[in-house]
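Two proteins follow. First one:
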Amino acid sequence: MVTLQGMIEDLKKKLDPATVGMFACHNGVVRATSRSGAPAEALDIDKDQEAWDRVLADVRSRPGIAAVEAYLFTGRRRLGEDLLLVVVAGDIRENVFPVLEETVNRLKKEAVKKREHLT
């Protein structure tokens, strides 16, 4: 099973510690309501692999960024289950935090396909 901690440990083994001063993470989960407030029970999740790869290649090229890794749990996901894990490794928070936010927003907008199951 993929976890944020596992992703961080893998990056620590691969990256030069001289280039990394922090890891910032996102762990998106299925919530009980849609954005409009309607009760929800599950999501069906898939991704556009080409868009996914394009977004990651772009954000990995930013100044101060040593690595960006993301994992999407696909298929039927129920309340409380993990959906999207993102780890950004970089030099300083002024470089890392904006890339984390951009990566999450762009992956969700450009690459993640979801269908809500409302109650």
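Second one, unrelated to the first:
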Amino acid sequence: MTSFLGWVLLPGLVWADINPGLYQPYQSLLSNYLIEETLPGNGLVSAFDYQAALADTDLAQTLEQQRKALAEFDTGTLEAQKESVAFWVNAYNFFMLEQILTERPDGQLVSSVWDYGGRVNPFVDSVFERESFVIGGERFSLSQIEKGVLLGKDYQSRGWKDARVTLR
């Protein structure tokens, strides 16, 4: 079974020249399980083969390697716009992918990330609001990465805020 990635900003990994090995575990997942199809008119459809990824005996180790690399990363080294935006978009996309692969209610993949709570169940925190994702020793929610960093005041003051950055 293949599910479409509605939350991916760009197909695959967003590249930047900083810390080339930082996203190696995430890149490995994308290389192995991301399916891209070119459409007429130069369009692109991306899907991720969750079932195949779940069958990978190295999945837990790959996810842990990426989580550890992000938890230990010094975000103070992100000085240029391209590198910073690429870093945060990749972090957001990795953490969402990890969420889908690791939190499976009743052992099943969710049909929508909203199944985790929020929109459908107001008594459960939305997956976007959970401060579960550690970057540089600091806890972030997906919403904080999107609205606090990529669309936040610091980026705006640097002229980096870009209306094309929408992750949901």
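SUMMARY FIELD: Residues 32 and 53 are 8 Å apart (CA to CA). The two ends are 22 Å apart (CA to CA).
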